[in-house]
Design brief:
By secondary structure, the chain is an alpha/beta fold. The protein is built from seven helices and nine strands. α3 (72-78) links the parallel β2 (67-71) and β3. The protein is globular, with a radius of gyration of 18 Å. Bound molecules: 1,4-dihydronicotinamide adenine dinucleotide and the ligand Nc1nc(O)c(N)c(N[C@@H]2O[C@H](COP(=O)(O)O)[C@@H](O)[C@H]2O)n1. Pathway: Cofactor biosynthesis; riboflavin biosynthesis. Catalyzes an early step in riboflavin biosynthesis, the NADPH-dependent reduction of the ribose side chain of 2,5-diamino-6-ribosylamino-4(3H)-pyrimidinone 5'-phosphate, yielding 2,5-diamino-6-ribitylamino-4(3H)-pyrimidinone 5'-phosphate.
Length: 262
């Protein structure tokens, strides 16, 4: 197994050597999809779309970011670990860098028994950060109680103001999330999904690199896809926001990498 990330990742993410903007980290959006653009099965059932080789590529990518972000839908559905266990231990100095797990969880529904917290407790994972909407302890006793339980299990809770007019309701604004993470020292962020998080990040001009693993399978209409904003102008021409910079086969999968256009 290779002992360093694939060359295209080193090249695509070399902007990480530069400081990120003041208002956000460098952002990489990445996920795996079928050829009919599904990221999960019927009813959201988790699908292992990536084969071994592209999964190893994803784990190398994880080592190259300060933080790794998923939405609460993914955290509850998949109970992910977000670590780098598919990589062989490095031969030389120290272990691989582990990204900080970050969960976007407006109402604090994450379970204190989840694998991310269990891994932190047993010393194999970093302390997860949970981003939620601000709590008014007097009127939200249940949420305050859940906060206490999650903190007891090891989580750091980050509260952000949620506008009553937020659209869709209950969504924390992406720029606010990114600013809070940047202020906490996160300089590079890998966003893994799920469907709603992908749509939200694609709707804002904040994604520097987009890396999609395409597995040669059809999931069918019952599968879960993701929405993207309209990239067509009134005359039907493509208003490209990204340019494709690299395509490479990893085992049976095709990985397509894009970078944001200025
Ligand atoms: N194939 C792949 O690479 C991946 C697939 N998945 C799949 O995605 C599915 C989960 O996706 P979703 O249910 O859409 O959940 P999600 O993981 O996208 O979380 C969405 C939830 O986060 C909260 N949220 C707060 N602020 C938000 C914002 N600004 N934008 C979006 N959400 C915000 C809301 O409660 C929202 O319902 C699962 O089936 C999982 O297996 C998840 C990650 C990667
Ligand atoms: N790269 C990739 N390929 C797939 O086929 C996937 N289903 C995912 N899912 C993402 O990875 C998380 C699971 O991570 P762990 O294996 O538990 O470390 C899952 O929650 C999705 O974010 N990714």
């Amino acid at each position: 197994m290779a002992d360093q990330p694939p060359a295209f990742l080193l090249d695509l993410l070399k902007h990480h050597e530069e400081p990120p903007p003041a208002e956000r980290p460098h952002v990489t959006l990445t996920f795996a999809q079928s050829i009919d653009a599904k990221i999960a099965g019927a009813g959201g059932r988790q699908l292992i779309l990536s084969g071994k080789e592209s999964m190893v590529m994803t784990h190398w990518m994880r080592t190259m970011h300060d933080g790794i972000l998923v939405g609460i839908g993914t955290a509850l559905n998949d109970d992910p670990q977000l670590n780098v266990r598919h990589l062989a231990p490095p031969s030389g100095s120290g272990p691989h860098h582990l990204p900080r797990p970050i969960i976007i969880d407006t109402h604090l529904g994450l379970l204190p028994t989840c694998k991310l917290l269990a891994n932190f407790q047993n010393g194999t994972g970093r302390r997860p950060w949970i981003v939620c909407s601000s709590i008014s302890p007097e009127v939200e006793e249940d949420k305050q109680q859940r906060k206490g339980m999650l903190e007891e299990a090891g989580a750091k809770i980050i509260e952000l103001p949620l506008s009553p007019r937020s659209s869709p309701p209950g969504y924390l604004p992406v720029p606010l999330i990114l600013k809070a993470l940047r202020d906490l020292g996160v300089c590079s962020l890998m966003v893994e999904g799920g469907a709603r998080i992908i749509a939200s990040f694609l709707s804002e001009p904040v994604v520097d690199a987009l890396i999609v693993t395409i597995a040669p399978v059809l999931v069918g209409d019952a599968g879960v896809g993701y929405q993207s904003p309209t990239f067509l102008s009134n005359n039907g021409e493509l208003k490209a926001r990204f340019k494709d910079v690299h395509t490479e086969s990893f085992g049976k999968d095709t990985v397509v990498a894009f970078e944001a256009l200025p």
